[in-house]
Every structure is written in C-alpha cells, then in structure tokens.
C-alpha cells in the first residue's frame, strides 16, 4: 500500500470522523486525538502504518474499558464506510484478542462497512480451530460481506497481510468454507473464493486441480470460480487445467510480425505494440491469447506478469492485434529502468518475444 491510500487521511477526513464520534460520545477529546495523530512519525507512515496509528490513538481517547470503546465504534460504524475505516477492525485486532465474543461480533459488524479481512488473521493465529469454526458459520450468513469475510480472511497469501503459514502447509481447514461458498450468488464472494483457490494453487496445485475436476460442470457460478481460481495454473500452461477448461493443449497456431512503436519508453509513458496470430488448422480451436512483460525489479532481476488479450474459439484465420501498456507506477507495481521483455503467450506457450528498454526521467533527458 502506498501514499495513494495513505493520502486519504486528510484533515477534512479527521474533522468529519471526530464529528461523528462526538455525536455518540460527547466526551471525546478531539484536541488530544489530533495531537496523537499528527506526531513526528505521521508524515513518514504509509497506509497500514497509519491504520495502526489511528487505532492506537483511539485507544487513548475512547473510554478505558474496551467493551465501552467498542460499543461506541459499533454504533457509529454504519456512518463510517470505506477502506479509510479499516482502523475499526484494527482496533479489535490490537485490543480485543482477550475478549473473544465481543470482538468477533464487532468484526462481523465492521466488515459490512470496510473489511475485517486483515484483523481476523490474528484470531486465526490465536486459536485456528475455534476461529475457522466461526468463519464456517459466517459462510452461511445472509449478508454477503460477512460471507466474503469467511473466505477472504483465511486466504493463505492475502495481499498486504502476513501469510498464514499453517494454511500454506495444509489448507484443508479452508476447504469446507470454499465448498460452502462455491455456488454463492454474490460476485463479491465468488471473486474471494476464486482468489483463495488461486492462493492454494501456488503451494498445492494438485489439490486445486482435484477440486476443479470434482466441481467443474456443476453450474455457471462454480465454473467461473474454478476458471478464475485456476488462472495461475492456466497461465503456466498446465495441461490438465487447459484440457478441463476446453483449451487446445497443442494449438496449431503461429505468431508473426511482433513489433513495437518505440523500443525505448520513459517511466510514465505508454508502450504500443502489435502482432498477428495465424491459426493453421482447419478445425476450430479454443485459444487464450495473453501478452507477458518481464518487469525489471529493484534488484535487477525480472518478474513476469501476464495480461489477457482475448479468449475465444478461432477458426482458420489470421488476426492482427494492437495493444498498449502504460508504465505508470501503481500501488501494486513500481517500475525500474532497464531491459524488459514482451512476449505473446497462447494457451500457456510463449510463441514470440521482443525486448525494449524502460528509462527513468534522467536517462530520458540525457538521450534527448
């Protein structure tokens, strides 16, 4: 998480939040709260650090009793909606591990307005069996935010959160929850189940492939979850997954005329490229066409990321594709100068590649 999210905590945000708190708790000391927030560390902190900073400051300005403080937060939660309010469940994570019942109830409320996906992990670590029983109960809750928490909170590799090492080694406690949710009608929940499966596939590919074989074909919802959950295996060209999803394992296809508009691009600019796909078989073929970029990392090594171009049934034909890729720094990716590689991938196989160079501002100006 970067300053894009950290910047959400403006003075206007805190003024509005303090107004909401004081309506429920008139004794709230706004001056003390703001002095605690804007200390010597605040400007240097990123989003998750600021979440913890705010929850710690609240602990010093709300009633000393945890249950009383929690009661205030649960009452104002419906007025505090969005990712900015992740400090509500963080307050529970920091202060509530010893008060299980009140804390679990609060996390259930808070996740409906922000998300408790990070906070529940400390409860899983404290008592895995008890917490996973609770999350299985959440998986049948009428509210889709709470059902989604049941899956999202136990992802072994949840982004921006410490991994659950025990579930990386043995994901079996997660499976009853995923089984319960594999036909959920909420897209929000479906995406979480798929992401959980994709996490598991990185350490236990055979387990996920077995689930895919067992579940695929039940209905359209489960089929979508399986396909999205197997996307990592699909991108690796796993033959079992390709076959299960109806893709040709050895497609009769070629890629030609891969070219770049510019061989040198500045960070923040757009790379435009094109290529042609020729299907040679007289029989129809189901193809998944992607392009991959091997991004240079800070240490000089590269990391590949794939981007979908199209996925459909091809007859014998030739088709030209023109695509663009923007090298703007994102919350999830920072770009570094150096030699990059672009490749065209069809059904998991690299069929063409070309190199290009990414420059930083200083290099770009020197070249000019």
From TrEMBL:
Gene3D superfamilies per record: ARM repeat domains
SUPFAM superfamilies: ARM repeat
InterPro entries found in the cross-reference section: ARM-type_fold (IPR016024), DNA_alkylation (IPR014825)
Classification lineage: Bacteria, Bacillati, Bacillota, Bacilli, Bacillales
Protein name as it appears in the record: DNA alkylation repair protein
One Pfam family named in its UniProt record: DNA_alkylation
Top-level taxon of the source organism: Bacteria
């Amino acid at each position: 998480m970067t300053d894009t999210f950290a910047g959400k905590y403006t003075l206007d945000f805190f003024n509005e939040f303090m107004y909401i708190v004081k309506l429920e708790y008139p004794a709230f000391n706004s001056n003390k709260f703001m002095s605690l927030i804007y200390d010597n560390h605040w400007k240097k902190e990123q989003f998750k650090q600021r979440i913890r900073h705010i929850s710690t400051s609240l602990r010093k300005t709300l009633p000393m009793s945890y249950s009383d403080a929690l009661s205030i937060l649960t009452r104002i939660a419906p007025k505090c909606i969005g990712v900015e309010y992740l400090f509500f469940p963080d307050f529970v994570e920091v202060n509530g591990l010893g008060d299980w019942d009140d804390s679990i109830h609060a996390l259930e409320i808070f996740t409906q307005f922000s998300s408790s996906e990070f906070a529940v992990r400390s409860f899983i670590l404290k008592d895995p069996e008890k917490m996973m029983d609770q999350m299985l109960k959440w998986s049948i809750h009428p509210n889709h935010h709470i059902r989604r928490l049941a899956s999202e909170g136990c992802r072994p590799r949840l982004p921006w959160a410490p991994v659950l090492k025990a579930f990386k080694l043995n994901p079996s406690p997660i499976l009853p929850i995923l089984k319960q949710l594999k036909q959920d009608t909420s897209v929000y929940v479906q995406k979480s189940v798929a992401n959980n499966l994709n996490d598991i596939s990185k350490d236990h590919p055979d387990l996920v492939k077995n689930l895919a074989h067992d579940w695929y074909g039940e209905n359209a919802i489960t089929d979508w979850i399986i396909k999205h959950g197997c996307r990592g295996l699909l991108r690796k060209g796993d033959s079992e997954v390709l076959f299960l999803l109806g893709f040709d394992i050895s497609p009769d296809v070629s890629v030609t005329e891969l070219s770049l508009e510019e061989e040198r691009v500045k960070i923040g600019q757009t790379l435009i490229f094109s290529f042609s796909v020729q299907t040679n078989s007289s029989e129809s073929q189901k193809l998944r066409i992607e392009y991959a970029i091997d991004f240079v990392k800070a240490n000089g090594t590269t990391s590949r990321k794939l981007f979908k171009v199209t996925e459909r049934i091809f007859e014998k034909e030739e088709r030209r594709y023109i695509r663009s890729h923007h090298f703007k720094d994102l919350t999830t990716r920072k770009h570094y100068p150096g030699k990059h590689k672009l490749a065209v991938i069809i059904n998991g196989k690299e069929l063409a590649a070309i190199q290009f160079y990414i420059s930083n501002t200083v290099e770009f100006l020197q070249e000019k």
